[in-house]
Amino acid sequence: MQPHNTNSTNELWKYDAYLSFRRADTGNNFTDHLRSNLHQRGFRVFRYDDEFPRRREDYLPPWLSKGIEESKILQILFSENYASSAWCLDELVKILESRDSQAGQQIIVPIFYKVRPSDIRHQKGSYAQVFAYHEELYKDTNLEKVSR
Length: 148
Known about the structure:
Elements: E1 15-20, H1 23-27, H2 30-40, E2 45-46, H3 48-51, H4 62-69, E3 71-78, H5 86-101, E4 107-112, H6 117-121, H7 126-138, H8 143-147
Parallel strand pairs: 1-2, 1-3, 3-4
Helix pairs in contact: 4-5
């Protein structure tokens, strides 16, 4: 993985990488080390807590969606409790939508932090529990949100 060429006259991406993570699981350890190492190697990394204040909202704010759309590599740090955050799941949906709208020009890199890929793929373990919770929570108002 090579950093963005800042001398390019046709600059497609404002950021080389976007990090999606659950702060309580990885924010002050793994994610900080990953971001630091990417910066040391010349990558421009969008991470919302670097540039914008943290907020609790029921939707992804426009600046966060824009950060996703302006990043070449979209890194998703799946952790044990990633799916328990409605924010993280909304962010994941936006990442997939952005990649599809960019005709596959964006690269998604999943990173599994203390969780098995098969638990996510087959919704086992903590992922089974949290998706059952989300289905119950949204069954009367927005079940389509959970399926996305």
